[in-house]
Task: inverse folding
């Protein structure tokens, strides 16, 4: 009997890795539009700010790729319009250094 339940951590274990992404300037990230497959820097998206937050649309097909909404004491983030978001791994050099024998 297979047991996936024994091999997981709770979501708190991702806090460090997630802070590496969400503390960065995401406008420099590459994003792939889930609708047409175009890959662009987020900074090239068409941004609409006539709302409590903003909506980013793909510059190629104009479909929504990203929404951020301010709602009272919450911020809601919808990234379902993008297949992925890719940022440079600034931590890569440090990991290599820490894995080298001393
Ligand atoms: Zn698109």
Result:
């Amino acid at each position: 009997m297979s047991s996936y339940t024994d091999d997981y951590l709770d979501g708190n274990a991702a806090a460090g890795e997630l802070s590496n992404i969400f503390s960065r300037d995401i406008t420099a990230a590459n994003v792939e539009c889930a609708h047409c497959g175009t890959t662009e820097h987020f900074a090239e998206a068409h941004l609409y700010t006539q709302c409590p937050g903003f909506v980013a649309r793909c510059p190629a097909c104009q479909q929504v790729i990203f929404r951020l909404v301010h709602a009272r004491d919450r911020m809601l983030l919808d990234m379902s319009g993008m297949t992925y978001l890719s940022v440079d791994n600034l931590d890569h050099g440090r990991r290599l250094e820490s894995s080298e024998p001393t």
